Amino acid sequence: MRKFVYSGSLVVALTLTLTGGARAGDHSKVTVPTLTGFASLPAATFVPGSEPSGALVTGNTNGFPVPFADQPVQGFSGIVNNGDGTFDVLSDNGYGNQANSGDFLLRVQRLAPAFADNEVDVLGGVNLTDPAGHVPWKLTREDRVLTGADFDVESIVKDAAGGYWIGDEFGPYLLHFDRAGRLLSAPVPLDGVTAPETATRTGTTANLGGSKGFEGLAKSPDGRHLYALLEGSVTGDTPGDLRLNEFDTRTGKYTGKRYVYRLGAPNLAIGDAIAIDRHRFLIIERDGGQGATAVIKRLYIADTRDRDKDGLVDKTLLVDLMNIADPRGVGGFGATFTFPFQTIEDVVILNEKTVAVLNDNNFPFSSGRTAGVADNNEWITIELPSSLNPDKRIFPAQSR
């Protein structure tokens, strides 16, 4: 793993790389979504000097013996742009379920892609903790460091103070942390919706599938509202219809307003949801296939204004992630680049015509790029044929 020290020139270089200047070079206007950057973090990347992990992992680990000596830097399920060439990226809950993830420490990783070298640098990060005892049930660890048996964290935005709002799938809950990763208040449940993991804790009845809570979390451009998107349909709703719930950060309560996002088919899932402006969102929609069985991996624009008045948010296909033009061979896989991963769970807008997308590699299980080989965490940038016309407030202040 490469190491470096921050400097003003580094920030400038990283910013140029992220917007396509350093890696992609000058080129004429693209007419289709086109790959402009490719970087990869090796699957076997671990937090130095951390705790062992993976003692309860079973099944095919693609050649990696368990337990691991340290905590893996893996499973990216949400991303926020720091505006200086670095990003805070949320690691997933661990190893796929609540039962086997009690020794995986929930963590926000700080990363910097270096597209000129096709690499990703790990700069550090913070573990998520609850030192003040806001979680009312017994946690896995007595020291109140949060684990993948406590929450399934899948989505993240920053607050005005540099802390984090994080969406959880086990509740589903909204969790508010400070910049050091300390929980600031009790988990906020979603009225009328209960996942099985919480039903077991509370003795209530579940009306949502396991780990089908908040896969996407978007922040309004003014920072007042959060929009939390469920991954699964609530019992009684039309299969494939997902609730997008509005939350007021000032009151700490849901407003009662919600929208409906309809998947292309009930067996599909969303991977992330972020804001473009007050009405529009970017949403990743995917099937569960990988490698040769990966078919639907798409990025949509969703518009809550419902112009056709059918009661659903309007959807427009933006990028087919299985069919990205790569005329310059940036990705190294020919003139057409595919992103054939089981779970693709991160999208971020870099500028009005460029987005970045990351996969969740489910380390050590997924092998979408090469059969039998654990996937790396890949990080790509895509130039769009036309501007998204985003609200400038969605960008960090230093990059506007």
Structural topology:
Blueprint: H1 8-18, E1 34-41, E2 76-81, E3 87-91, E4 107-114, E5 119-127, E6 153-158, E7 164-168, E8 173-177, E9 188-189, H2 196-202, E10 214-219, E11 225-230, E12 241-248, E13 253-262, E14 269-275, E15 280-286, E16 297-303, E17 314-320, E18 324-325, E19 336-337, E20 343-351, E21 354-360, E22 377-383
Structural overview:
The protein has helices at 8-18, 196-202, and strands spanning 34-41, 76-81, 87-91, 107-114, 119-127, 153-158, 164-168, 173-177, 188-189, 214-219, 225-230, 241-248, 253-262, 269-275, 280-286, 297-303, 314-320, 324-325, 336-337, 343-351, 354-360, 377-383. The protein has a single domain, classed as Tachylectin-2, Chain A, CATH 2.115.10. The protein has 2 helices and 22 strands. The protein has a 4-stranded antiparallel sheet, with no helix packed on it. Strands 2-3-4-5 form a 4-stranded antiparallel sheet. It has a 4-stranded antiparallel sheet with strand order 6-7-8-9, with no helix packed on it. 46% of the residues are buried.
